[in-house]
Amino acid sequence: MRIGELAQASGTPIETIRFYEREGLLPAAPRTEGNYRIYTPQHAERLGFIRQCRNLDMTLDEVRVLLRFKDQPLAACGEVNSLLDEHIGHVAERIRELRGLEKELRSLRAACLTPHVAADCGILNGIDQAGAHGAAQRKRRHVRGAH
Amino acid sequence: MRIGELAQASGTPIETIRFYEREGLLPAAPRTEGNYRIYTPQHAERLGFIRQCRNLDMTLDEVRVLLRFKDQPLAACGEVNSLLDEHIGHVAERIRELRGLEKELRSLRAACLTPHVAADCGILNGIDQAGAHGAAQRKRRHVRGAH
DNA sequence: GAAAACCCTGAAGTGAGTATAGAGTCAAGG
DNA sequence: CCTTGACTCTATACTCACTTCAGGGTTTTC
Ligand SMILES: [Zn+2]
Ligand SMILES: [Zn+2]
Ligand SMILES: [Zn+2]
Ligand SMILES: [Zn+2]
């Protein structure tokens, strides 16, 4: 199959497939005489695996580790288990943070129930004060935020 | 105060302060003879506001809107309220997604309780199948993920 | 007067793609 | 045979919110 067909079948944009090849997640596909990539069902399966991992919000580095095990079927899978445990931790921590955030945002929102003048807006003024009593600092994690 | 002192006082890296100036979130600071930026308490307050918004996981574009209202204290604050409502929606939606993700990851994890050979790993094989019965597709949002 | 600490600019890198531009390939219709 | 249109190719730039780096200049302190 050619790249467009694989894209269709897997629900992956063409550019993303080429990107995965550049990044070494997919092996370089063989080419036709006209320099078109051609894919086998094995390619499609591997791409499906990558996409499923991304749907589980893993980083490409995390995916790379799992692919290494797929490529070495005789290796012990202990590292797979611990990678998953860590990643579950990433997700759980992010949920905790976002819940705190949501609470803070809702109480901020309650400070301005009827619109008035910006200078007196309970939200705008509330954001100023929120910093005063020491809020949490943002950290860098890999499970994405809200936007 | 000079940039280092402002950085210290606000818990913001120096480079980030300069970045905010380039992006127009902070006004260009006046300079000393030696071309050093000098800041007033007003600058510090504005920076604190920006940082607080970032702690609430807003995008810089969302922050820009709020700053516009800070700069026009006589405007009606209705847009502030709706921006906050939308952003609360961003956060709430992301929490919902991550909860589903966590559940899926935990059930995947349960498929391999004792390590064995990669070819037989319930996790690696489970990821393959997860895609088969139609999992959720990732979307682009602004509240960051887990990593 | 020299070292240490501070500051400057401009450019490039991060992650995980997305979006162009400009060119080449291939099947079908006239 | 020629053209149209769908498909594909590479290379490059853009996204976001910074961070890091290279290569300098300034100020303070000993
Ligand atoms: Zn993770
Ligand atoms: Zn208000
Ligand atoms: Zn938002
Ligand atoms: Zn296993």
Quick synopsis:
Chains A, B: It comes from Aquincola tertiaricarbonis. Two copies of one chain form a homodimer. The first copy, chain A, is mostly helical.
Write a concise keyword list for the protein shown above.
MerR-type_HTH_dom (chains A, B); 147 residues; homodimer; 2 domains; Multidrug-efflux Transporter Regulator, Chain: A, Domain 2; mainly alpha; 6 helices; DNA-bd_dom_put_sf (chains A, B); binds zinc ion; DNA-binding; Cd(II)/Pb(II)-responsive transcriptional regulator (chains A, B)
Would you spell out the secondary-structure blueprint of this structure?
Two copies of one chain form a homodimer.
Chain A: H1 3-10, H2 14-22, H3 41-55, H4 60-71, H5 78-109, H6 122-132, E1 142-146
The first copy, chain A, binds a DNA duplex (30 and 30 nucleotides) through residues 2-4, 13-16, 18-19, 23, 32-37, 54, 59-61, 140, 142, 147.
Keywords (chains A, B): DNA-binding
Protein name (chains A, B): Cd(II)/Pb(II)-responsive transcriptional regulator
InterPro entries (chains A, B): CadR-PbrR, DNA-bd_dom_put_sf, MerR-type_HTH_dom, MerR_fam
Give the mean pLDDT of chain A.
93
Q: How many strand elements of chain A?
A: 1
**What is the makeup of the main sheet of chain A?**
none
Q: Report helical residue fraction of chain A.
A: 55-70%
Hetero groups bound?
Answer: zinc ion
Greatest interface: A-B, 67 and 68 residues
Number of helices of chain A: 6
Q: What are the low-pLDDT stretches of chain A, counting only 5+ consecutive residues below 50?
A: none
Order of helices and strands of chain A: HHHHHHE
Strand fraction of chain A equals: under 5%
Protein name (chains A, B): Cd(II)/Pb(II)-responsive transcriptional regulator
Keywords (chains A, B): DNA-binding
InterPro entries (chains A, B): CadR-PbrR, DNA-bd_dom_put_sf, MerR-type_HTH_dom, MerR_fam
Organism (chains A, B): Aquincola tertiaricarbonis
